[in-house]
Write the structure tokens for this entry.
Amino acid sequence: MSIHSSLRTPTGVTASLRNVLKRFERVRHLMTQGAWPEGRSVYGLPKIKQVKLKVRKAAAKEKEEAPAEAPATGAAPSSSSS
Amino acid sequence: MQQIDASAIDAVGIPRLLLMEHAGLAVVRAVHHLVPDPSAPLVICCGTGWNGGDGLAAARHLHERGHPLRVAVTGPLDRLREEPAAYARILRGLGVAPVECLTAEALGPLDEWLAECRLVIDALLGIGARGAVREPAASMIERINRSGKPVVAVDIPSGLDADTGRIQGVAVRATMTVTFGLAKRGCLLAEGPAHTGTLVVDPITIPRRLLETAAA
């Protein structure tokens, strides 16, 4: 059985960016945040929002800027020789 | 959870045997999910308490489905409480006599059974167990873990504290845990998630209002 390409997700990404967490994952998250009082019920847990950080675009911009600078520095010696 | 059981039995009037029957059926569904082949041999390790009774109830239905069974009990059969004893009698009547394993030394055949089976059911210790796991259950748990076979734990993996999720000396590493009524705290805290495997919550006909009150 095939799956439509739009429904496919890269492996690994889904696991880290899931918004629906398992109950023990939510408990663990609250514990790491220090928001887990001893003896708290494991029911009625607050919702946990997963924030997506878009780092890729910033990295691409830096790459675009870098090659533009390189020819400018390299061109200076040739112009002085002529 | 024990209070919910008590309310369902005493206040609502649901016989414990009926709850045990549904617990057994819930375990059978989990086994069927993991091992659909009804000719697959199974090993069922039972304690002498209510948890063991749930395991014996599951054994009855699994026998009816055609699974070759080995049933081990960690105590004398004549000292089982009313409901587990009823299931032990039924099993004897069906020709699947539970085997008493009273000491760690008496567990000799268990290794062979575990080597031959396709799946193990852990019904040794339930939510009422307190303190370090004693023999012969401790040795049995070690052998179950060593076997590498898929394990379905009844209510909570044996050896795991139901309130804190801490291991009481040794604990079963389950592939799937079928818990009754509500998820136990111990399955979600500390070492609990690593030992629980996939958690299945089955209401076993406990009235919803009791469960909702307890979960609130």
In short: Chain B has a mean pLDDT of 91. Chain B has eight helices and seven strands. The radius of gyration of chain B is 16 Å. Residues 2-215 of chain B form a domain with the Rossmann fold fold (CATH 3.40.50.10260).
